[in-house]
Amino acid sequence: MINRLIIRCDNYSHGCIEGVKLEYYDVHEKQCDYLPLKCMNTGCEVTVLRKDMLAHEKECHFRLVVCRKGCGFPVAADQEQNHSCVAVLKSNMEGMEAMFNKKYKSLSESFSKLQQKVESLQTKLHLHQSSAASRDSANDDRSSYSTGAATPVPDSYGEDEHNSQRTPDSFESP
Ligand SMILES: [Zn+2]
Ligand SMILES: [Zn+2]
Ligand SMILES: [Zn+2]
């Protein structure tokens, strides 16, 4: 029952005289033509009702247009005739130069970090190689010994297996 209530829109004072059913209020609020909206263009402080926004955007002094005088950069509409293309180009160049310098700085920083990593890896590798070389010479003595000792083991193990098959009998018989 309560949802059938018809209430007055918040934007009544701006001209929305439509009565809104409570159940549709959320929907209406989102699309009410009389909702005041601030212009999105940078520098523009104008607030207009939603229904007038399209008209305002077409004539807003701060809307961006592509300069037809020469620089081809987007400029605020009321600046198109007065601005200096050279100044726009210069500031764009400076912006690009600053961006380039920043990129270059971070690139050279990561490059020197990489270089440090490579150097420390080289040092580690060198240490590893020299210690491995001393270990290899020690291994040579042991490996000749261990292979000589390891070979007989499978044979004697096979013999043990044959023996163990006989042992249960010898355990049970007494
Ligand atoms: Zn409304
Ligand atoms: Zn505007
Ligand atoms: Zn220009």
Automatic annotation (TrEMBL):
SUPFAM superfamilies from the xrefs? TRAF domain-like (SSF49599)
* Residues in TRAF-type zinc fingers: 27-71
Record-annotated TRAF-type domain positions: 27-71
Q: Which PROSITE patterns match?
A: ZF_SIAH, ZF_TRAF
Keyword Zinc on entry: yes
**GO terms, molecular function:** zinc ion binding
User: Where are the stretches annotated Disordered?
Assistant: 122-174
Coiled-coil regions listed: none
Concerning Pfam families, the annotation shows: zf-TRAF
- Output compositional bias ranges, type Polar residues: 165-174
Q: Which UniProt keywords apply?
A: Metal-binding, Zinc, Zinc-finger
Q: SIAH-type domain location, by residue?
A: 4-62
What is the recorded name of this protein?
Putative dentin sialophosphoprotein
Give the species this sequence originates from: Stichopus japonicus
